């Protein structure tokens, strides 16, 4: 009877060691997956930001092409817009004072 209990205890100890080993493996796998998940979230965020910048560039290009049909007229229109923006900035500064 005592021998059977000892054998049973040894079997349980081996099972516990196997389970503990599997648990450690799963913890390590979980840490790895969490790191990978964080990296993927960061990359997705960067990709969304890059996409948003590209969409803004497309919008600006579309507007600039609507401003003028040829490159020379476009340059003049951009200079005029820049001048207007500088004037607005100066007006805002004067209002702040």
Sequence of secondary-structure elements: HH
How many separate helices? 2
Category from helices, strands and their pairing: mainly alpha
Mean pLDDT: 90
What share of the residues does DSSP label as strand, in percent? under 5%
Number of strands: 0
Bulk shape: rod-shaped
- Gyration radius (Cα, Å) is 34 Å
| Helix percentage range | over 70%
Contiguous low-pLDDT stretches (5 residues minimum) are none
Largest sheet: none
Distance between the termini: 98 Å
Summarize the structure.
The protein is built from two helices and no strands. The protein has 97 residues and is mainly alpha-helical.
Task: Please give a structural write-up.
The protein has 97 residues and is mostly helical. The chain is 95% helix and 0% strand. It has helices spanning 2-67, 71-96. The longest helix is centred in the middle third of the chain and has 66 residues, at 2-67. The termini are far apart. The mean pLDDT is 90.
Element layout with pairings:
Blueprint: H1 2-67, H2 71-96
List keywords for this structure.
single chain; 95% helix; mainly alpha; 2 helices; 97 residues; rod-shaped
């Amino acid at each position: 009877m005592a021998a059977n209990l000892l054998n049973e205890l040894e079997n349980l100890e081996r099972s516990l060691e196997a389970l503990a080993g599997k648990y450690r493996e799963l913890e390590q796998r979980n840490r790895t997956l969490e790191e990978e998940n964080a990296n993927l979230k960061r990359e997705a965020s960067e990709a969304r930001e890059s996409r948003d910048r590209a969409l803004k560039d497309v919008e600006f290009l579309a507007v600039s092409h609507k401003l003028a049909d040829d490159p020379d007229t476009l340059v003049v229109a951009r200079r005029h817009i820049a001048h207007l923006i500088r004037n607005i900035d100066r007006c805002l500064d004067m209002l702040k004072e």
